[in-house]
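Researcher: Re-running this chain for the archive, since the previous output was lost when a drive failed. Same request as before.
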Amino acid sequence: MTPRIVLAFTAFKGTLTPTQACAAADLPGAILLPVADGGDGTLDVLPGRRRRARVTGPLGRPVWASFKIDGATAIVEMAEASGLRLVAPAKRNPLVTTTRGTGELVLAARRAGATRILLGVGGSATVDAGRGALEVLTDASDVVVLCDVRTTLLDAPRVYGPQKGATPSMIPRLEARMRALPRRVWRLAGSGAAGGLAGGLASIGARLVAGSGYILRELAFRQRTRRASLVITGEGRFDRTSLAGKATGAVIAASRAPVVVVCGTSELTPRQAGVRAIVELVDVDRDPLGHPARAIRAAVAQVILGSSR
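Model: Regenerated structure tokens:
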């Protein structure tokens, strides 16, 4: 019987989207099932017609942001409007950056006919507890927040502030923003996602869910892989956080078939991760960052060769 191989890559941050990573494997006959967890690639993997709206960027200047409409459901990725990639390193300052554009993007999705909003909240430039979004939204009961982390609200400034430009002296001021939200959202799993945007939206009715599991269910992952002989998944950096709610870890947990991880670098052994093998791109290509598609193709070819022995 011909092996039934599923390619279920998530984003290789800064280089390839999940769809591009799966296509890069160039494996005829494979089932392509790109995945995400609410962070990078969420807009890429869920179905829908792409739309654009002009919204407030993280520094207050207008930006064009994409979202998708699939029937009555909209897929919104907050990084499109309020993402760290929209702010030059020298200008990153979470006391200044705002999530207002994300709120405007939700409004644009509603105007397009959506009655359910799936909001991925990874990759933010903000630690404003959603204050910007709450300037334009008074109700978020139609919003499902796809959290890529389980961090609670009051931990968000300390954990994520520095990567968004926060200095030690800024942390107490950012924590005060979190405490301004109702106490009932402080301990919600994922409320600290996107610098507290998840908690801010929860305070006006949004539902917070683990993004990876939710998206795998939306993609019917278990049904579409039930006859698989092998699942190949991966991302840029594979480490313990990958197994704590990220897309790669969710694929490993959900797959009935053996799993191989293809990644840029790994801090885990196959035994630690519970997989058949781990292939690092640095071991199969001299310049994986310069030629990521080529490196993935070579890595997958190595996996298939090893599986056929």
